Amino acid sequence: MNVQDVFQTYAPELRQVEVELASIFANDVALIPLVGHHILGGGGKRMRPLFLLLSADLCGYSGNKRAILGAVIEAIHTASLLHDDVIDGAQTRRGKTAAHVLWGNHMVVLIGDYLYSNALRVAVGQNKQKVMEALSEATTRMSEAEILQLSKTGDPSITEQEYFQIISGKTGILISAACRIGAVLADMPEEKEMALRDFGLKAGIAFQLADDVLDYVAQQASLGKKLGKDLEEGKITMPLIHLLKDASAAERDEVVAIIEEASRENPDESHNGHHMTRIIDLYARYDSIDKALKTAQGLVESAREALSVFPDSAHKDALLSLAEYSMQRKS
Predict the structure, then answer these.
(1) Do 73 and 22 contact (CB within 8 A), yes or no?
(2) Element (H, E) at 161
(3) Cβ-count burial of 190 within 10 angstroms (0-12 exposed, 13-18 middle, 19+ buried)?
(4) Which residues pair with 96 in a beta bridge?
(5) With bands split at pLDDT 50, 70 and 90, how would you rate the model's confidence at 273?
(6) Which of 110, 125, 171, 201 could form a disulfide with 176 if both were Cys (CB 3.0 to 4.6 A apart)?
(7) Contact, 53 vs 21, CB < 8 A?
(8) What's the Cα-to-Cα distance from 105 to each of 24, 31, 82, 102, 304, rounded to whole Å?
(9) Distance in angstroms (rounded) separating the CA atoms of residues 328 and 330
């Protein structure tokens, strides 16, 4: 089963997730649903809820808590994006004007806080202690990862270990929670619950690693954001880590200077195009992109192995297709 078939098959379930997601934004304070409409209207593939839906189906659970908790997962993800865009000063999100540009930083931070708390309130109502354990672990690690990433902005000495700590917290842990919750809803034995947790973590890390590569190689129109944005924001991702390790001393000094310029409070943006071209040329010289993608593919294979405790089935194939999607996507 290819990933397009998975999305098509689960379109009705994802529409129900949208209904539940809108209810999380529902509030008598008019600005909350207004911002929600703006954000939800920006699209998004709803990958995280889909991981939960597929995991629940793999484990034999098809009740309505799938859609409710899928919406909870997406609401938490959306809250993190609202906060990220404020921190990064991003002007767009999924091709639309970023919410904080329209309503201001203070308001959008508070709406992000509301989303977190209301999503967790909805989750509590499902009366599953392990669901709350998974979500509390995820939200804690997401915050830790954002703090670590911010502290490492513009720091060329960042290690691979620190980078993986960041992306496992930013992306891996919430997908891990989504997959684990699918098993929890079905009251699966711990072996299978932990297998899905491990699968989701590795698939999520691979997804973020591939996303970091796309920041340099995707078509800008399909990506929905400016290419090279990570570099401009001083974020050191895996291709750049490989380049800093492999380049000559002189080239490394040049790359460090580019990073330092990008990380200044008021950088000279007139050099951005030249800097980006130079970095891309060096990536090609040292195979930095291919090395990063090879790491991502290894994580996908490791995720596949984590599901070996489950017998072959259409639901298992669908989950594996979703994990492989990180290596196939163009946006």
Answers:
(1) no
(2) helix 160-167
(3) exposed
(4) 93
(5) confident
(6) 201
(7) no
(8) 21, 14, 9, 9, 41
(9) 7
The residue count of the chain comes to 331
Residues with Cβ within 8 Å of residue 197, at least 6 apart in sequence: 134, 176, 177, 179, 180, 183
Q: What angle do CA 171, 179, 145 make, to 5 degrees?
A: 20
Query: What are residue 97's DSSP bridge partners?
Result: 92
Q: What DSSP string describes 39-62?
A: HHTT----HHHHHHHHHHHHTT--
- Residue 269 pLDDT: 63
For 115, the domain range is: 3-328
Q: How many domains does the chain have?
A: 1
Per the listing, tokens 């379109």 go with 11
Using only C-alpha atoms, what is the Rg of the chain?
20
Token pair listed for 172: 């891996």
* C-alpha–C-alpha distance, residues 30 and 39, integer Å: 15
**Residue the block writes with tokens 């990073």:** 259
Q: 214-242 pLDDT, tens per residue?
A: 989 875 445 455 677 888 888 999 999 99
Phi and psi at residue 138, to the nearest 5°: -65, -50
The count of other CB atoms within 10 Å of the CB of residue 125 is 11
Q: Report the CATH number at residue 311.
A: 1.10.600.10
Q: How far, in Å, CA of 281 to CA of 178, rounded?
A: 38
| Sign of the C-alpha dihedral computed for residues 280, 80, 70 and 133 taken in this order | positive
List pLDDT tens digits, range 57-83: 999 999 999 999 999 999 999 999 999
